């Protein structure tokens, strides 16, 4: 009888530990008093807490929210050698009533697991990703800057944690979320170099995944463009260097005549941006015809020569809507008077209006914390 009672008790406690939920350990003293939440650089400061959960023996553990702190790792950690590492970028905002909202986090959650599948990593369950993020943002909600163009940048990421240097998918992984109160990523209109030698992505590759290696692979070409005085490169297709793909950390839009054109996602070479998707919706709401299709650099030059290329801008979570003031292809330079533009500023105003709670959230994009 006593034994039976004991077994029942053990079963109950195991179930309680295995149930979804988040363990929270709070900081003793917040660092928030040491920081001014205005005029912040992008991604340099981190909030008081972070979320951490490990995958092992084919299952995820209990997520833990704890004080932001360094990680202890073995030099043989698989992610450091073979790059099984993916991430997301999401933003949280505070409206005028002080309520906290996250912009379209479910879309990032879905994309995260698409990246995970491509990199042969386990899917993160929705309750860990969404509920963990909600709890973490809620705990550090006072870190959400109130200033225009500022937000709390949410960085979920996952990496392999096997300690072995044989090349194979890891059996263990760590999923984490950190938060960074942040200002704009690009502060001024950009000069862009059209890349026709180096390649970011090709069909069958990993261009559509938010894999850490995609960003590492872009750095050399970007550094070459910087030496020539450009901020970023506009990637072109791997076979002919004829069709445009994306710019640095952003998707790209061209206003040609009364249409908005952006490269389509069909080839799997372009990141399916959440801001890209939001921009398409808002541009349609603004009455523009939006075309998602292959766009050649020749078409862009012809439109420019004919006075039809009105605006060029990038979209991204970090970048929001970023104007391009110069586009250079070989020796041909396309320059734009960004202060005369109508479309990109209106798009940014409407998008930020929804995110900052100043416009109606007609598309159900804001997730209440
Ligand atoms: C984002 O827009 O969130 C990104 O992931 C870009 C980042 C590499 C700064």
Written account of the structure:
The protein is of the alpha+beta class and 369 residues long. It has 8 helices and 19 strands. The strands form 2 sheets. Strands 1, 2, 3, 4, 5, 6, 7, 8, 9 and 19 form a 10-stranded mixed sheet that branches. Strands 10, 11, 12, 13, 14, 15, 16, 17 and 18 form a 9-stranded mixed sheet that branches. The longest helix has 17 residues. It is globular. The termini are far apart. The site of 2-OXO-4-methylpentanoic acid has 7 residues, from loops.
Secondary structure elements and their pairing?
Blueprint: H1 2-18, E1 23-24, E2 49-56, E3 59-60, E4 64-67, H2 78-82, E5 85-87, E6 90-94, E7 100-103, H3 105-118, H4 126-139, E8 151-160, E9 173-182, E10 190-194, H5 212-227, E11 232-236, E12 244-247, E13 251-256, E14 259-262, H6 274-285, E15 289-292, H7 297-305, E16 309-316, E17 320-329, E18 332-335, H8 343-355, E19 366-368
Parallel strand pairs: 1-4, 10-11, 10-17, 14-15
Antiparallel strand pairs: 2-3, 2-4, 2-9, 5-8, 6-7, 6-8, 7-19, 8-9, 11-12, 13-14, 13-16, 16-17, 17-18
Number of strands: 19
CA radius of gyration is 22 Å
How do the SSEs run, as a string of H and E?
HEEEEHEEEHHEEEHEEEEHEHEEEHE
Return the structural class.
Answer: alpha+beta
Count the DSSP helices: 8
Helix content: 25-40%
Name the poorly predicted regions. Answer: 1-19
Largest sheet: 10 strands, mixed
């Amino acid at each position: 009888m006593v034994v039976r009672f004991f077994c029942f008790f053990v079963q109950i406690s195991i179930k309680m530990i295995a149930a979804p939920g988040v363990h929270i350990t709070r900081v003793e003293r917040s660092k928030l008093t040491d920081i001014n939440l205005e005029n912040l650089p992008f991604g340099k400061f981190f909030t008081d807490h972070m979320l951490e959960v490990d995958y092992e023996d084919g299952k995820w553990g209990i997520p833990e929210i704890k004080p932001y702190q360094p990680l202890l790792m073995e030099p043989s950690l698989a992610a450091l050698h073979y790059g099984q590492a993916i991430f997301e970028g999401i933003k949280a905002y505070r409206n005028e009533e002080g309520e906290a909202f996250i912009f379209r986090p479910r879309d990032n959650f879905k994309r995260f697991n698409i990246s995970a599948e491509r990199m042969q990593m386990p899917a993160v369950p929705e309750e860990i990703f969404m509920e963990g993020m909600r709890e973490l943002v809620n705990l550090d909600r006072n870190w959400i800057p109130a200033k225009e163009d500022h937000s709390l940048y949410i960085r979920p990421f996952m990496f392999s944690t096997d300690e072995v240097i044989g090349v194979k998918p890891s059996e263990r992984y760590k999923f984490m979320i950190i938060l960074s109160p942040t200002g704009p990523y690009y502060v001024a209109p950009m000069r862009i170099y059209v890349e026709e030698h180096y390649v970011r992505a090709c069909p069958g590759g990993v261009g559509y995944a938010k894999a850490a290696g995609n960003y590492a692979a872009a750095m050399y070409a970007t550094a070459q463009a910087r030496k020539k005085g450009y901020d970023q490169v506009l990637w072109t297709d791997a076979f002919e260097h004829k069709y445009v793909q994306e710019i640095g950390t952003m998707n790209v839009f061209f206003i040609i005549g009364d249409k908005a054109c952006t490269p389509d996602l069909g080839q799997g070479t372009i990141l399916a941006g959440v801001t890209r998707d939001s921009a398409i919706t808002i541009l349609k709401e603004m009455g523009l015809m939006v075309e998602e299709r292959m766009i050649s650099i020749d078409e862009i030059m012809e439109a420019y020569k004919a006075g039809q290329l009105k605006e060029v801008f990038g979209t991204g979570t970090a970048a929001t809507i970023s104007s391009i003031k110069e586009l250079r292809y070989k020796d041909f330079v396309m320059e734009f008077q960004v202060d005369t533009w109508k479309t990109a500023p209106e798009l940014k105003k409407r998008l930020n209006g929804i995110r900052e709670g100043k416009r109606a959230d007609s598309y159900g994009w804001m997730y209440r914390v």
